[in-house]
Model the fold of this input.
Amino acid sequence: MTVETARPRRTRIQTEKRELILEAALEVFSAHGFRGSTIDQIAEAAGMSKPNLLYYFRRKEDIHATLIKRLLETWLAPLRELDDIGDPMTELRGYIRRKLEMARDYPRESRLFANEILQGAPRIMPMLEGELRALVDEKVDVIRGWMRAGGIARTDPFHLIFSIWATTQHYADFDVQVRAVLGPDRGGEGRFEDAARFLESLFVKGLSPRPD
Amino acid sequence: MTVETARPRRTRIQTEKRELILEAALEVFSAHGFRGSTIDQIAEAAGMSKPNLLYYFRRKEDIHATLIKRLLETWLAPLRELDDIGDPMTELRGYIRRKLEMARDYPRESRLFANEILQGAPRIMPMLEGELRALVDEKVDVIRGWMRAGGIARTDPFHLIFSIWATTQHYADFDVQVRAVLGPDRGGEGRFEDAARFLESLFVKGLSPRPD
DNA sequence: GCAAATTTTGACCGGTTGGCAAAAATTAGC
DNA sequence: GCTAATTTTTGCCAACCGGTCAAAATTTGC
Done:
């Protein structure tokens, strides 16, 4: 028995306007959280009136839900790519770099997610306990395999994943703090490369097998 | 020229009730953010009526501001303790442990702070650019000294501090995600010790000088 | 170019929210 | 025990917020 996902035939205008609204909503929600954002704000950011916006999304919740659902796809992609075959250390470095690139290129998505988790994940709890947990369990097994094979040091794979999430997403979620502390970007290749270099060396050295 | 901080002589009841309100407000604000929280919620959590609460704090903003100001004191304390004298690696391990203990013992404060930063730090920007930045600069110098002396590996001290903040606060701010992924606490010494052990080994190994 | 479908607008509504004011109740000082 | 100061309650209001509705404007299919 399959669930009918009644494909909602959309007109050209509907497709365009919905996209416009989602873009505006991402901007607003990521900056003020769900309750902190008003439909009026989103409507104004999208350049339309509130009732007009509500013609495309009947509820504020619907916009948010659509945004979150879409975000999760991109969000878990890097972890999904963590591959069994291939050199462990190279795989992990790749994962860290991809996560860091996401924090740089999609900071609003990161903050939207952070907002949701901070408030107790009221709308995505099932996904955390289901899809996310299953995926992490799967990748933890991969990492454990690497540890047994001596490719990386034996540590807690769960907390390893947490620490990669934390350090990379920090640059999106705590961006204003990072900027305030570092001051105006002083030339060079910029913060991103500095952060990438630091994290790479921290994790590579920190996880190298039998160092003494 | 000193700024007169007109000491507001308080009665016994005022002292007690204000404390009660702040405790309730911390609970509410940290869970729902500033805009997501209502005075009514806080009043109910404090066991009093809304107008009664407003007798002690004339505005919602005032409660929040008081909370934030108080939080910052405790928040920066661990970093202030980072001491020049003493073994570098021991100092850093101590700092990591203290930050992790704070995430465990004061998760609400951590989330209050995270909420504030996430929303662009509208109320504490000056403090970030002033007090916090100065303190970090000072400690960065200490760390640089250690690096020159060969006590720890040469890496970017700013990003080192960021990564310690990120990894430790993660356990408070993203608590629900950590719980969802790890599942019900399965015996043993618990998550806290696991996290402490992992982070300690990651940073100690990752920062040890000339490993090869 | 015309009818039907779609999109946009403006007016509105009920509930919530932050905050005020004044009176009533309580407490503190003597 | 009486008075003045403090605390609490009741009642309220104006602004805001999510959402509805019906009519007007526009676009689409032919």
